[in-house]
Amino acid sequence: MTVANAPVLIDGGVGTSESRRRPVERVRRGRGLVKYLGLTPFAFYVLLFLAVPTLLALGTGFLDGDGSLTLDNITALFDPVILGAFASSFWVSALTAIVGAVVGALVCYALLGTRPDGAVRSFVDSASSVLAQFGGVMLAFAFIATIGIQGLVTVILRDRFGTDIYADGVWLYQVPGLLLPYLYFQVPLMIITFMPALQGLKPQWAEAAATLGGTRLIFWTRIAGPVLAPSFLGCLLLLFANAFSSYATAAALISQGAQIVPLQIRAALISETVLGRANVAGALALGMIVVMVVVMTSYSALQSRTARWQR
Amino acid sequence: MSTDAVRIGAEPGKVARTVILGAVGLVFAVPILAMIEFTFRAGLGGGYTLDHWAALVDPEQNTKYRQLFTAIGNSLVLAVVTVAIVLVILLPTMILVQLQFPRLRRPLEFICIVPITVPAIVLVVGLAPVYGVVVRIFGSSAWTLAFAYGITVLPYAYRSIQANLSAVDVITLSEAARSLGANWLNVLWLVLLPNLRRGILAASLISVAVVLGEYTIASLLNRANLQTALVQVSKSDPYVAVIFALLALGLVLVLLLLISRIGSTRPGRKRT
Description:
CATH architecture of the largest domain in chain A: Orthogonal Bundle
Strand content of chain A: under 5%
CATH superfamily of the largest domain in chain A: MetI-like
Largest sheet of chain A: none
Distance between the termini of chain B: 19 Å
Largest interface: A-B, 88 and 89 residues
CATH superfamily of the largest domain in chain B: MetI-like
Radius of gyration of chain B: 23 Å
Helix content of chain B: over 70%
CATH topology of the largest domain in chain A: MetI-like fold
CATH topology of the largest domain in chain B: MetI-like fold
Oligomer: heterodimer
Structural class of chain A: mainly alpha
CATH architecture of the largest domain in chain B: Orthogonal Bundle
Distance between the termini of chain A: 57 Å
CATH class of the largest domain in chain B: Mainly Alpha
Largest sheet of chain B: none
Helix content of chain A: over 70%
CATH class of the largest domain in chain A: Mainly Alpha
Shape of chain A: globular
Shape of chain B: globular
Number of strands of chain A: 0
Structural class of chain B: mainly alpha
């Protein structure tokens, strides 16, 4: 008894609070379980509608029509037609990402001169979000109306300037026809994602450079350039991923054939009756995911490098 | 604004700014103007007419577009159910994680960003069998597609709510409310939600915008929504399809302008 009481005598406060905490702790542990219960709806939902579909999509690539394991679908990925689709997807995504990133960055640069809460900025921001996220089918319509066979620009160029943009055949409904519509959502996406990085350039850096006798050229090449480089490359990758995974515009524009990977997935899904094609969609999905994971991992690595300067 | 000689820093000159914004703005305006011009065309022969717009309010013609109106109804229902999923499932989880599980913040963020890496066109491959089960349980009504859309909007909704959640010290607020004797329901309803209303509203609006623009999942699961119906209608009556595309575009632009209004309400802004 005395030994047990000794610590209490030395610092009684702790002892009493210790004994008082016990019921509280029990309550807390009880609430702890309820606490974890609170996480279950979200966990359950994400499991059912994100994890399961993703695993199913990737898994069916390894199954044949009877449900037994096979690598046939994966080897089907190396079919020249499918390799061609991957190649088309790559160059369309890469080209629109590079052009989109450069033009978008220029717009961001120009926007730096406008008031952050001004009307120009808020209109460009909102219009960019609309085009970047809402585009899809609407963009196909817009470009058919603009550079379709009877499109506004096509007709004006033909009647007023005598140039026929389709002299070598109609390319709008082919892979090259995707370039302009894709740029129409790539540039806005660049504006949304790159603007925060550009705004993170601190005026103090420019002042410090100017105090030390640096010109604007030196400021851009030695300070702003290196600071912005990881962010610019990250945005470039995001744009690539965005174009690579985009489906709606291409689907609405190209109704015949499957020249890019998302359209190959459509073809594989719709032609489920054709023997042996059903699970190719899974293999294609797997191929896409591999590309997306590589690109997005590099993106987040570059983003965290950018974050260093944005504190 | 000082003269060019002493200008320092990143800001562009007035000329550069005007040239860049003007040129890009012009190029981006052309397709939209072409769409508007297209809706007034009389036909391949040339000439302009108001018929296509008039047909929208003509009850006799309306029966022709019944399919389109049904699809718009579907999209609106989907938007409402998707927002409900965001508010009932995502929002409480984010608040709970912020308050009680700081260690789960990174994993939650990761999960919410995953739908960017797993694009809709990939997700739909695995959603087809999942929807086989969903249809057996809930039937095949249009609203069930919202389960998939809840995932699609996850990155956008997460970002909007998290921006608000990080800006407000919810831990201190809820502890203050608790120490004054409020129960958890009161803390949530009277303290946390009013402080988060900006993020919640932004998340809801962006979810509505994303749902109204969704095409991939609906078309490949053979569901009718606004976008799939637009593609259908465009094959028989391209004018009406373009008119509705323009209207939807305008509506979503207004939604997003609202978001930026909500987002930019800063102190000191009232002065202007």
